[in-house]
């Protein structure tokens, strides 16, 4: 027995269909929408703005705050209780760490850049979708950035290495599963998010990171296209 | 109070125009209602009024009835003023503004008897459906109240029961059975600024209001819920005028469903 064909018919190195749009929340300083399959993320950036209370301020550089939140009706199972869980707090933390390396916060001492990620609908890969949306929103806010951040999940289902696991693959019962969300700075190829749960060999992991890097270049193109679409309108 | 902004707005209103060029009792355009936008919800809708953008999702759960109404289900309305949608909103448990929003939307639905709670009963005394309505603003450019109430109704209108075998809900399987709506309650918030009455305030107008009255009414004009807000009092004559505007404008919003 082997995992011969993906349940939704995709190729093993193929993501679900992706949609991206920039400038979707008029009141935010920067915003973006990123949809991959049934997983749907919004990100809004506010700032750099004053940081209160004052003792949180850093006179050397600005502070990045990220918050990841699933809307109460966004899970395919029971309602998600509002107010944040241990899981959402951890994802907020690693999302901040994934985005920080592309920012240059030395320019904004005593300030904060707030990134709010909201998911109206989820089906696996929500932290990666949130990171993709957030990195576009940061660019839309006009912050100086060294690179964008592209994120995707890679993994292993039974005996196959693959890209962008969906819910049925995450919960595949007939064999071992490894789920590895990663984020990459596409221009340097450096990795800013790496988590994993499941079982995998070292060789396979390295192979998966290479596969992820390749697919992130495709995601990068989608993000760039979305950003260009908004700013061409302004030029015209 | 933003005195200069308010004076400017009143000056314009006295000449029968608004900051953005609208008439006094004109909603922003377009008003868009998009149903079933969220697949993971049992019902959902997204409403845009001008730049204001709200998603409402409905989840169904099975619970125990209240002891005094053993053969009735219930509704629960929650609202979170997401900091994503407005620079002034902060993280944390719902504040007083969010609670008021949720409760005004709740009352419009509950008191109009738009949902027959008896039809939500599965087994008297032990099992009932709970209809949980969550309001999530994406962009708050003013008038979240009317947008949320319209979105809640549009979401309920498309809500389908998930499969339930008497023990567990199978959320993956939606049945064809729809939640039935008996009435269509619509909330219209009428604002008083100076001696003028307007509807659908934008962010600047919202900062300058003297008083507001949210008027929920059903198809035949019967009132089902009211909420006065703002720091200034209203005369009976004011209320008379505001109710007329509220009932009239509700007809216009109802056509968007």
Defining key terms:
heterodimer, A: 236 residues, alpha+beta, Ribosomal Protein S5, domain 2, 5-stranded mixed sheet, 5-stranded antiparallel sheet, 10 strands, 30% strand, globular, B: 257 residues, 6-stranded mixed sheet, 4-stranded antiparallel sheet, 26% helix
Description:
Chain A has 236 residues and is an alpha+beta fold. Chain A has a single domain (18-235), classed as 2-Layer Sandwich (Ribosomal Protein S5, domain 2). Chain A contains four helices and ten strands, in the order ββββαβαββαβββα. In chain A, the strands form two sheets. Chain A has a five-stranded mixed sheet with strand order 1-2-3-5-4. In chain A, strands 6, 7, 8, 9 and 10 form a five-stranded antiparallel sheet that branches. In chain A, α1 (86-99) crosses α2 (126-140) and α2 runs parallel beside α4 (202-235). The longest helix of chain A has 34 residues, at 202-235. Chain A starts with 17 loop residues before the first strand and ends with a helix. The model of chain A has no long low-confidence stretch (mean pLDDT 93). With 257 residues, chain B is of the alpha+beta class. Chain B has one domain: Ribosomal Protein S5, domain 2 (2-Layer Sandwich). Helices cover 26% and strands 34% of the residues of chain B. In chain B, the strands form three sheets. In chain B, strands 1, 2, 3, 4, 5 and 6 form a six-stranded mixed sheet that branches. In chain B, α2 packs across α3 (144-157). The longest helix of chain B has 19 residues, at 236-254. The mean pLDDT of chain B is 95. At the A-B interface, β3 and β5 of A face β3 and β6 of B.
């Amino acid at each position: 027995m082997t995992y011969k064909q993906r349940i939704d018919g995709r190729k093993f190195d193929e993501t679900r269909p992706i949609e991206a749009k920039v400038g979707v929340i008029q009141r935010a300083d920067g915003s973006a929408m990123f949809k991959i399959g049934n997983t749907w993320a919004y990100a809004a950036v506010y700032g750099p703005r004053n940081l209160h209370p004052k003792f949180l301020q850093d006179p050397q550089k600005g502070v990045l705050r990220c918050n990841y939140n699933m809307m109460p009706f966004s899970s395919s199972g029971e309602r998600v209780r509002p107010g944040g869980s241990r899981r959402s707090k951890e994802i907020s933390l690693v999302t901040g760490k994934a985005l920080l390396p592309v920012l240059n916060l030395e320019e904004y001492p005593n300030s904060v850049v707030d990134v709010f990620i909201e998911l109206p609908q989820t089906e696996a890969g929500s932290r990666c979708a949130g990171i993709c949306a957030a990195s576009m929103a940061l660019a839309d806010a006009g912050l100086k950035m060294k690179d964008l951040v592209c994120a995707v999940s890679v993994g292993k289902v039974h005996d196959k290495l693959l890209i962008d696991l969906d819910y049925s693959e995450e919960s595949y019962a007939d064999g071992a599963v490894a789920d590895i969300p990663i984020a990459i700075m596409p221009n340097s190829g450096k990795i800013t998010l790496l988590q994993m749960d499941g079982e995998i060999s070292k060789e396979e992991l390295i192979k998966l990171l290479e596969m992820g890097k390749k697919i992130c270049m495709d995601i990068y193109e989608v993000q760039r296209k979305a950003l260009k679409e908004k700013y061409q309108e302004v030029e015209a | 109070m933003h005195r200069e902004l308010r004076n400017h707005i009143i000056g314009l209103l006295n000449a029968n125009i608004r900051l953005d060029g609208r008439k006094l009792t004109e909603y922003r355009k377009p008003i868009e209602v998009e149903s079933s936008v969220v697949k993971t919800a049992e019902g959902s809708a997204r409403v845009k009024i001008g730049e204001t953008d709200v998603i409402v999702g409905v989840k169904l759960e099975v619970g125990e009835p209240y002891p005094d109404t053993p053969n009735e289900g219930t509704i629960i309305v929650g609202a979170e003023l997401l900091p994503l949608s407005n620079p002034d909103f902060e993280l944390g448990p719902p504040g007083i503004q969010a609670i008021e929003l949720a409760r005004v939307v709740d009352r419009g639905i509950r008191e109009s008897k738009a949902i027959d709670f008896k039809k939500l009963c599965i087994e008297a005394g032990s099992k009932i459906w709970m209809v949980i309505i969550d309001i999530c603003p994406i962009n708050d450019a003013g008038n979240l109240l009317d947008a949320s109430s319209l979105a809640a109704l549009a979401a309920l209108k498309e809500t389908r029961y998930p499969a339930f075998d008497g023990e567990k809900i199978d959320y993956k399987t939606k049945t064809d059975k729809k939640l039935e709506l008996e009435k269509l309650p619509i909330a219209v918030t009428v604002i008083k600024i100076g001696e003028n009455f307007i509807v659908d305030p934008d962010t600047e107008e919202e900062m300058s209001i003297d008083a507001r009255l949210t008027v929920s009414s059903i198809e035949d004009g019967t009132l089902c819920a009211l909420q006065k807000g703002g720091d200034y009092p209203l005369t009976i004559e004011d209320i008379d005028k505001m109710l007329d505007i509220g009932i009239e404008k509700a007809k216009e919003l109802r056509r968007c469903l």
